[in-house]
Amino acid sequence: xxxxxxxxxxxxxxxxxxxxxxxxxxxxxxxxxxxxxxxxxxxxxxxxxxxxxxxxxxxxxxxxxxxxxxxxxxxxxxxxxxxxxxxxxxxxxxxxxxxxxxxxxxxxxxxxxxxxxxxxxxxxxxxxxxxxxxxxxxxxxxxxxxxxxxxxxxxxxxxxxxxxxxxxxxxxxxxxxxxxxxxxx
Length: 185
Hints:
The protein is α/β, with parallel strands linked by helices. The protein contains 6 helices and 5 strands, in the order ααβαβαβαββα. β3, α5 and β4 form a beta-alpha-beta unit.
């Protein structure tokens, strides 16, 4: 018997470890179960259901790292939480001019963005030409060149809204209001 035990010692140890693991698992399940007649509460779902609407941001080459873009992005996210619209951004690469920004705005309009926001000199400068080409898209110009609602000095039009730059908090709130308004109309 001693020879058999020595020859099978590893198997005996593994079987004992497996028995302990099974017992621990069963004990844990019994202790954590809610018992008969009680329903287990599930955590709230974390997935967000989005609508077909989209708010898209065009920035200069620094993207969201640009200090002027950060409050705009935050305002867009706030508006998304209230409207369930998708938000995305696109950063320009290469030449930073209004002419170079035109194709980027066209890309966002072709992606069926309901509202396109711009921040930065080049993206803002491209809106006067893009606005009339895409009448079904709302444009929101954010920053220094923005003079008020209903268009800018350079970009009058029914589908262009201007949000003047200011503090990060005021810009964030103004962008949230402008995006929410554009998505609801």
